[in-house]
Amino acid sequence: MSLVSLIPAFPLLGFIINGLFGKHVSKLTSGILGAGSILIAFVLALICFINQHPGQANEVILFPWIQSGSMDIHVGLLMDPLSILFTLIITGIGFLIHVYSMAYMHTDEGYSRFFTYLNLFVFFMLLLVLGNSLVLTFVGWEGVGLCSYLLIGFWFTNSNYNAAARKAFVMNRIGDLGFLLGIMLVWVSFGRLDYAYITTHPGLAGTDVITGIAILIFIGAIGKSAQIPLYTWLPDAMAGPTPVSALIHAATMVTAGIYMVVRMHAFYALSDTASALVAIIGGATALMAALIGVLQNDIKKILAYSTVSQLGLMFLGLGAGAYTASVFHVTTHAFFKALLFLGAGSVIHAMGGEQDIRFMGGLKKHIRITFITMLIGTIAISGVPPFSGFFSKDEILASVYAYSPALWLIGICASLLTSFYMFRMLFLVFYDSFRGSADQLHHLHESPKAMTIPLMVLAVLSVGGGVLGLPEFWHMHHALKAHLQSVLPYASTPHLNHSTEWMLMVLAVSGSLATIYFTYMLYIKYKVRPEHDASRLKFWQKLIQQKFYVDELYDMLFRKPLDWCSHVFYNTLDLKGIHALVNNSGKAIRVCGSMMQYIQNGKIGSYLMAMAFSIILVLFLILVY
Amino acid sequence: MMIPLLLLCIPLASAIVIWSFPAAFTGIFSKLFAGTQIISLLVIYVLHFYASTTTELQYDMMWFNAMGLHVSLLLSPLSMLFIILTSLVGSIIVLSIPATTSKHVYALVFFMLFALQGVFLAQDGLLFYIFWELALLPIYFIGLVWSDATRATLLKFFVYTVLGSLSMLLGLIYVYLHTDVAGAHAWNYNAMIQAAQALQPQQQYFVFWSIFLAFAIKLPLFPFHSWQPATYVEMPYYGTMLLSGIMLKMGVFGIIHWLFAMVPAAIPSVQQPVLILALIGILYASIIAIQQRDYKRLIAYASMAHVGVIVCGLFSAHVQGIQGALFQSVSHGLTVVGLLLVCDILEHRFGSQTISNLGGIRNTHPWFAVLFLCITMGAVALPLTSSFIGEFLIFNGLFSYSPLIMGLAGISVILGAVYMLRSYQGIMLGQHTANTTATIPKGHYILLTVVMALIILLGLFPKPINDLAASAATTLVHTLKPGI
Lengths: 625, 484
Known about the structure:
heterodimer, A: mainly alpha, 3 domains, two-stranded antiparallel ribbon, 72% helix, B: mainly alpha, 3% strand
């Protein structure tokens, strides 16, 4: 048994023990069990990381699974630079969020259930990134979907939350079908499904097949990573407890789509069509979600749209061929977005469950640590140097510029909007005077240490995470690039001259700073406040606030027709159609039978009549033919 | 030599013993015999590995010389797979029947297991037909005497099925008349296969469609399904379990063991129409299931959709597709029995199987919710449940035949999530609790746990079933595509 296989084993163990006995032990034990299993996994991952020679891959086959004809799928784990990086993010941030949850969920009845689900999630997520073949990744892929479903609908007595959970599951399944079709196409074209083979021999398939595989896998990524047109589940997923939003819907699960594209990067690198599609969808999502984020008033919804937008930016980078930069952004985004979500959780905690930023304000005096850490997160996401977000975002945008200046423009607009709505949120929540009720004001308090310490750790990472990928044109060492080099053999670095890179960087930073200043003027100086009365909104404001009515559109295009079809198929086609047809043919036989009865009436006269007519008929027929 | 005969005798003897002893013994005997069924299954499963020659797995005895009728049985890997399904699911069904039920019901169920195992073991055309019809009688009587099923529903079910069987008999007799073993006709499996394979293409099509009709009705395949929903709903739930868990698999078995083997040359030209019917059935039933208010009726339509997927696997005529269809037959048996157990609990403990009358059960019965959710996930073929293995293989086979048909059939994956989750949430979640005082008997908890464990175990370690399916599928594909 190698060390690698123990990494997912511990969260699984935590899940089983907590699931079976969690209710019978104290909350503290249950929480320690949950967090502890993730900590052990993190330590094991660190050991693996240290022991592994740079650039090496280590594949462990555990047991045979599905065999059929020439198909022979084994359960195995692949530990290479890409999967170890994701493993470290998942277990590291996962552990911090587990610790945070121990305090955040303290008063909840479903405490041990929460940790059971959370551990199961980490297990499936690890399976997703460590799986050695497409099928095993798919197992993790659907498994995290299940956990996401369970955790969004964690408070299951609320039917709105249940609907949100179901929506997430179903929309993910639409993507999953694409993923599944992609797996089939790989199988038919390569006869193998393990990464070690297919990612090194993409050339064995024709161009069309490569494009097909790339697009189908990307459809899966669209679902899981909430891109247009399957993004609407993610904002609704905020129904789940806030630590869930931080772990699943910001730092880890939603980045699975990016992992998948990077894992299969050979196919994207060889297909311009697929790459262009990825870039366009990513860019469109980045911009649209950022626009929607501008006028949201729910603190978690703002962060949700921000996540959609940032994921779009990562896909934009992937489409432009900047695989390393996108993975870099996954990493830094995991730091600052987890921080922002956990900070939001701390705010909600202090506000006694209130999530509407219109009723907040002036919180910076009351919850100092939360304020400072969230300020750091906000600066990081806005791309202000030397915070981590600056480095990763800049690297993506530089590559996108080299790929297509038009897409770069979209990207830069999205990131300026990001600076805007993030600072809008920060100013409205923490500055000026309190706008909530007196009760809430009285109740305001800083969260316990178990919640603030993870915030501080994440704040440090958000500040310093940039050292993982310092710009090469500054003649600095890009650690991540060196780390990932061996798993990205098909990636090519775009060549921009240094002056262009400097210019882009200066443009982005000054744009961001200008936006922050503008936001400051708007919300601090001129005290603009979000409108309470929806009827007074201008048309475009309403359009944005109502998320471009996409949910309503989908309802009209898919849900209602499907329900209608269901009714019509059942009532009209099935009952009045097929059912009646079969019944009537049964009846027809009975009717025939009773008609025959009249013929056999036992009267010689009618028999003779029938005979005579028959003979005439036969003679007539002979005459004709 | 005695192994196949033993398989037949155990359920038959169980039926006779239960029937002849007073009702006071029924409870003990039924549990005992269900246990015997399982133990003998395990023993035979192990034994069949060590059978040095096939003769040990064969039994042959002259029955009616003038017609060339033999009692000829063979335990092939294919029949082993269906025997496992019958014994396993059959025992679960027996154990789930409430203790107050008449002893005749128990006897009839065991008799039905006897007939079903006969269907899966028969190596003789007429014997197969006899068992096929015998299997119909117990379920008909159960419906007639011990259920609220209306006469019309039962009559429809009976007449429809018999109509199919007669069509099959016609096809079988047609082939029989073409057999020639030392100058005489024979019902023997190999002789019939040889005779059928030698037929002209037109004659083969006739044989195919006349026999296929019986299987299509039994499965049921769209548009021959109209007997199914009402029968499923009105039967007592153990009757529905027998119908959907085991009986419809007779169709799957028949297609593989008889139809594909007899007229392999006809398959390529009938593949497409059958696949299209199956595809229509999948989407049609899935869409209908979305709006069903009655949970049992929903299961009926869901089952129809799942069977459509199995038929797709079979008629992909691809090794993965056929293997997947076989695996899925077992898996579907388990999940559907699990769902029907849930349905029974809902109807008899919570007072309704109408989704809108239920809700909030999770508040008072958390462990029941876990079991129900796991089985629901099995029904939507989530990875690490047995259905995923089956569906994955089926879709692979289907994709090799036609990516378009696979893509369309794959929509059922999405629709399945819609109707299964909608019903689960409607029944189990929410604020309002349907019936707080309801208790679920321990026996049902144990059975549900067993079903859940089997679903997950087979999803993790599919090998025992998969090897049988693989061996059957590989042999079959060699017949279908002699060139490969």
